[in-house]
Structure formats: C-alpha cells, structure tokens
Amino acid sequence: MDLFLQFLVNGLVTGSFYALSALGLTLIFGLMRVVNFAHGEFYMLGGVLGWFVTTRLGLDFISGMLVVAAAMAAFGWLVDRLLIERVRDQGEEPGILLTIGLSIFLANSALLAVGTAPLKIEGPVANKLVLLGPVATTQLRLFSVAVCALLILGAHLLVRHTRLGRAMRATFQDPMAARLAGIKTERVYAATFALGCTLAAMSGMLLGSIYSAQVGVGGLISLKAFVVVILGGMGSFAGAILGGLILGVAEAMWGGYISTGLVDIIGFIIVILTLIFRPYGLFSTRSERA
Amino acid sequence: MRHLRHAPVLAAVLFASSAIHAQETIKIGLVQPLTGSVAYNGNADVNGSKLAVEERNKAGGVLGRKIELVIEDGQCKPANSVNAAEKLIQKDKVVALSGAFCSSATAAIMPVAERYKMPLITGVSSKADLTEKGNKYFFRAAETDALLSRAFAKILANDLKLKNVAYVGVNDDWGRGGVEEFSRDLSAAGVKTAAKEYFDHGTTDFYTLLTKLRASNADAIFVAAETQDGSILVKQIKELGLKTKVFGVGSWATADFIQLAGPAAEGIYAAVPYASTMTNPRNQAFVKNYSARYNEQPGKYGNAGYNALNILMDAIQRAGSTDAEKIRTALASTDYDAPNGKYRFTDKGQAYGFSLALVQIQDKTPKVVSSASIDEPK
Amino acid sequence: MKLERNLLFAFLLLAAALPLVVGDQYLLHLGIMVLFYAVLATSLNLVVGYVGEFSLGHTAFLGIGAYTAAICSLKFGMPMWATLPLAALVSALFGLAIGAITLRLQGPYFVIVTLAFAEVLRLIANNWIDLTNGPMGLAGVLQPRLLADGSNLFGKQFYFYVALGLAACALYLAYRFVYSNAGRAAVTVRENRYVAQSVGIRPFSYAMRAFVLGAMLAGLAGGFYAHYISFVGPEVFTFSFMITMIIVVLVGGKGTLVGPLIGALLVTLLEEYLREAKELRLSIFGLIVVAIVLFLPRGLMGFLTARRERRGEISAAPAAPADVAVAREGA
Lengths: 290, 378, 331
Known about the structure:
Chain A is 72% helix and 3% strand.
C-alpha cells in the first residue's frame, strides 16, 4: 500500500507539471487550431532564460520568473504576428510545418548559444525532504505544485472574467461573428499565442529548478503536451488538468509496476486509444465538425 | 653537431612547407557526438583530442607536417556516423579515424573502416565484442565494462561491504552492458541482486524508479549513466533521502558532473579509467594544460580523446609515412605513455597496461581509493 | 500528364548514366541517398499530396521495412532479393492496420495519432531486445554475395543501380495510381470530401489505397536502407528522419510526381553543402522550412506550375485537357 501511495503522489506531482505545460498548448490548439510543434521549445526557452536571469543576471527566482514571462509573452506575440498570421487561412498544414521549422531553429540556436550541459536554476525554496506519512517528496516539488495551481487558476480567471478572455472565447466560438462584433481578432490570436507561450515558458523555468534546464528537452515535452491535450479535449482547461494528472499517474503506475524503461509508451497508447474511442477527449468544449 | 649541419636544410624545408601549409597538413578524422544526449561528453572528447593536436603541432607536428583535425558529428547514431565516416574518408581523405564514441555507432563504422583500409581507434567504446570481430584496422584504447567490473568487483564487495545491490542503467547498449557485467561479477563475489532497472536517455524524473529501489531494500545502488542523466539521478537519490551507497561507471568523477550534482555527489564511488587526481608526472602536466586551456579539470572523456590522438600521431610518426598499412602496423606496436598509465595493444586491438581507479568523491574532488591495472589478457 | 511522364523518364535516364560518368565513391554515395529519399518522398507524397492528410508517422513504415529486412537477413539468412519484397509486404500490412485506425480521423488528430504510432514502434524496437536487439540494433546485415569480391566502387555502383531500380518501380507505381480511377478519386477526396461523397466516392477506401501504397513503398526503401547501411537501430523511427522526409516533399512540391525527385536532390545537396556549417546546419534547416512555408507553400514544382498556369492564361489559348490536368495536379 505504501508503494502505491508513493507512486500515486509521484504521479500527481508530475501530472500537475504536465497539466501546466499543456495548458498553453490547449489554448493555442483549441482556439487557433494551430498544432504548435514549437511548444516544447518555448518550454525549453523558459528554462534557459530562467537560468540566464537567475545565474547571469543574479535575480531571485520570483522576479526572474516575471522577467521570463514578460520576455516570452513578447516573443510569442511576435511569432504570431510575423509568422503564423501569414498562414492562418491556409488550413492546418502550413501551421504545422511552420512550427516544426521554428522548433528546429529554436532548439539548435539555443544549443549553439548555451551548449549541451544541463543548466542549474536556483529554486526559491530548498529541496529538502518532506515526509507525508509513508510518502517522500520535497519542499520544492510541493511549492511548484502550488505555483502550478496558481498559474492555472490565474489563466482560468483571465479567460473567464476579463475582456480579453471574453474576446478569446468569442473568437473561439466563431471568428467571423467575433469580427463582426468589433473584436480585433488578430490581436486576440496574438494574445492567445503569447499566453500559451508564456505558460509553457513558466512551466519550463519551474521544472528547470527541480530537475535542470536542458536544450534538448523540447521534443519530448511537445509530445507529452499533445497527449494531455488530446486526452483532455482541445481548448478545455479542466481537460488539461485532468489529462495531465491522468498521464502523470498512469506513467507512475506503469513505471512502478511494470517497467521503467517503457514509461513513455503509455502516453502514446493513451493517445491512440483516446482517438479511437473518444476523439474529442474527455471534455471537449466544441463539437467537432467533420 | 649533426643538427647544426642539417639546420639550414631543415630551415629551408620548414620555410617551404609553411609557405604551402594548406596542402601539407596530415588530416585525421573525428566522428564524435557533438549534438544529442551525450554531446556533453562527446565535446569533452573532442577537446582532449584538440589539445593533443595543438601540443603536437607546437612541437613540430608529425613527419614535419602539421596535423589537422576534421571533425564530424556522428550524433552517436549508427547511420549518421557511417555517413560521417564515408565523408571523412572519401572527401577529406583523412589518414586515420577516431570515433564514434557509442559502441553501436563504432560497430557501424568498423566495417566502413575495414572496407577502405582505414585505421580506426576508439578511446571510449566499451562493448566487449568490438574487439572480437576480427577487424584488424580497429583499435580500442579503452577499457571494456567486463574489464572494469572484473577489476573492481571484489574490491567493491569487500570495501563497501555490499550485500544487496540494485542496478540501474541507461537504456542503451552501454548501460545494459555495464549492468550485466557488474551484476555478474558481483554475484560471483556473493552479492545479491536486489533489482535491475533501466531508464531512457533524457529522463528527468526518477522518483518512480527510486521508489522501487527503496522498496527493494538494497544497501547500494550501481549506476551506469552519463553526466546529464547521472547528475539528475544522483540529486534525486539524495532528495528522497535514500541512504544507500552509490557507485557507478560512466562520466562520474568528472568536473562537470560534480558541479552539476552539487552536494549530492559527495560520497559517490566511481570506477573510472581516469581521474584528474591520479598522481604521476604525465598526468599532472596534462591536467595543468587541459585546465589552462578549457577552464575545467579533465575527466574521463577528455583523457580518452587526448590519448586516442596521441596514439594515432605516434603511430604515424613511427610509420614514417601516411600509408594506411604502415600506420596500422605501427599502431599494433604502440607503447604509449598516457596520463593514466601505459597503453599497449593485443593482437585483437584491445589496449592493456593502463590503470583503472576506484575513486570516491570527497570535497568535490575524486580521491583515488584504490587502483588496479589492466594486465595483458591471456 | 505527358510532361510529367517525360520528366520522370529524363530523370531516370540521367540517373542511370551517372555511375558511368562519375567514379568518385562519395558522389555515388550521395546519388544513392538522393534516390533513397526520392523513393521515401514519393511514398510520403502519396499520403500527403494525394490523400491530403499530413502523416507524421511515416517513419513507422520505413522502420518496419528496415527491421523486417534486417531480421530476415540475420535470423533467416535471406538474400537481398528476398528481403526487399518481404519488407514491402510487411510494411503494407502494417499500413493496412494503422490506416484502418488512423484514416478515420482528420486534421491535427490524424497528425498526432500517426506520430503516436511511430513513437510506439520506436519504443517497442528499443525495448524488445529479443527480436530487435533493442538499442544495440541489428548489425551486419548480409551483403549480396556478388559484392564480396568486388571493389568498393563496384559495391557503390551496384547499390546505385538497385536504388535506381527501386526508384523507377516506385515512380511507376505512383504514376499508375495517380492516373488511375483510384488516384483521381483520392484527389477528389482531397479537394472536397463532401462533394466526393456526394458523387459516391467513399473517402475512406480511397485514402486507404493511397496510404497502403505509400506504406509499401516506404517499406521497400527501408529494406534497401538496411542492406546499404548494414545497420538498423531504433533511430530509424525517430522524428528527425521524418522531418527530412517532410522537407523533401515540401521543397519539391506535394501533389506532384516530379516534386519529390527535385526535393530529394535539393535537400541532399543542401545537407551536404551545409555540412561545413556543422552546428549551424540544423538552425539553417529550420529557417529554410519556415521560409518555404511562408514563401513557397507549394514547393518548387508548385511554383513552376503556377507560373505556367499564369502564362497559359495570358496567352489566352484554351489549355489542352492534358495540360489542365497537369496544372490541377500541381495544385
């Protein structure tokens, strides 16, 4: 029983990280129908920038995170306005290819800039052991889970209760009608992309403090984020959270009871099964036109 | 006296050769992972090689010509390494190859080397069967996992008083090989196997794996991992409060690993073919030059690259020409003085005569706890 | 139609003449890689260009073909002329199975589920040690006995002609498919699924045909790869291979038969040229992809065809049906 609890807690912790990192993707995927393959690279940039501001610029973690958030939001905005805007009307494929090209470029340029070594980010809280009954975890992890929850809540409030959020939801439901209602949809798209980018980057920095920031991590992160988004349903917050937790726990259980070598496979099997049996995910907020 | 007589001729030759410098270099090809998950260690290897070449060129080069390194990125992948080797041999017309780091990549380029009759040396690849393939152009200036484990299994079992060991390895040919070898030799020394687990390159969260290890009641953990994965694993071992002894193979005891793992690295044992704290004059000179050039202490891979190139350059010098067969013959009769002992080759191309060390990381430096040397295999 | 066929013939003839003119082994090696990518790109083009869906899992079939050939060669001692058709067959079967599941989905869902399949296969290949030797891979795939005594140059020439044969075979099959009823139906589905259904075309069955044919050709290429490189490891399933394939199809122009050939040529040469740039190489690649998507969305062939279309309009002569068909193929 102890073992099960430990696996469960491990899974919930990593699951909440997955949820945060997938949140940005589900917004972009759900609202803009752009399959953003560069998502993992935004995450990676968050980690690398986080290392830069905390180590080279000497900022503490929280202020560093704010700086990174601002920088990545601006970056996301520019990417949308300069690149994605131009292929928006051409269907999904150009978006996919564009973001693939972008991800290759970002990953390798970062490699050139900082090299291959894992980068350390000083967390805001020490990494001390915390024992919850039979379960072991660390202070930093619990703190990060709390930050994840806060960020998710913040994003939710943004989308539900601000004008920008309403504009996003309107554009999500029907872009043409939104435009007719006077919403500047280009700005909404850019803002959504910037938000997605920032969420990814912040989760990258957060997790970078727990593990380490590495340049090559983008591909796997993108894939896991896609798994969560598909499981949870495009565009759904609740879906991203639940999907993330399910993936985290599934991986922990599979790794714990079956084999740690094959852990990644569970995510892909989940995707395949979901797409066969419930293609719109657990919580789709939009009925899929054929 | 003789030198003085030859001086003007020598000067004229040197002058002439420096005037047409570009065509006169001897090219040696490197196939190493410059990108990918072992890129960090691959770059260290390349750095060691570059240092060796720089030192040699400063001392006049080989056969009166400068050595030029042509470096290709094999990415530790067999297909890419084959492409890189083909390019180096066909296009750059190198006279010898050093590579390809990972045993599977090296295994892939060995037939290429044989087909083109190109001497190939590896300073790193440790899979035992590479020297069993009968490829007479291939030389391995490194230890194999089998040799490491045979040398240290008894010592580890006794010194660390091991009873129940859990084995963890990265899920590739090297990690699996290391786990197999060590578990076999330690079991022969009476140590029980608590668990055997593997993880993928690039795993960041080891909690599930470590939970299983904790439940297995092992009193020590054996790890076969490289810097990137190993440092994270070790940090998480300490985070979770696992009080087991940790020992392993791979790029432990290197400066970058110690720096990344931080305080979590203290107390870890490593079985390594090289440590910067080995005490002999050759090593002290090497450590001084390497740290001056690269701002960090050399580790296993820097040393490997350094040795591989020196062995190649020595062989070319002794061969007296860049003819492949002559270089090959010269390689077979190598007797090279390295920072970690002497290197000689068996007729299968396996190196022997150099030292291995069991180090423990204390105060951020690898202190040599015990050493052994690889004797000529029967 | 005629123009395309003539272009294809010209390409094949030129390629056939290459080894007679060029003696440099490295250039022949490049030529072999160009042909290899041409076959791969043609197979991917069938799915992307003629089904109209973006498959990111095409490496699955390449990998299956490669592993089939390697396993048959190493465990059963089969020679190359037996393993290649077997590789194609097994890939086709997998294509049938995977297509049955994935072709029911469209758009981004199709993209991700195909990717998921490729990843699952990679993880299986990496972990099923008994069959695939895991990360250690299968080395020493048997070379044809013919080559044992020959020189290295002869070996390269031999493989070049085998690759050429495979390319010819692939182009022929693709050509026959595209200009058959099945092919035209697939194009109709691509252009407008509902209209196609309204005239009685079942999208699923035609998509299946293109998909399985694509899988078969990719498997054939994979089998060739196994023998030529003589080493097969789980990295054949990785995304980076997929990216190269995508770029080749993109650069050349999807939905055309000549496009993949041009793409293969350009991309292989570009990779070689960029080798000098080493670490910068991949960054530049990424930029090139972005640039192509923004400025040359239909690839080179698409660009050229569009120019011809425009010139056709300017000359005001009614375009012959054959030319119009070609123009639309390029769309």
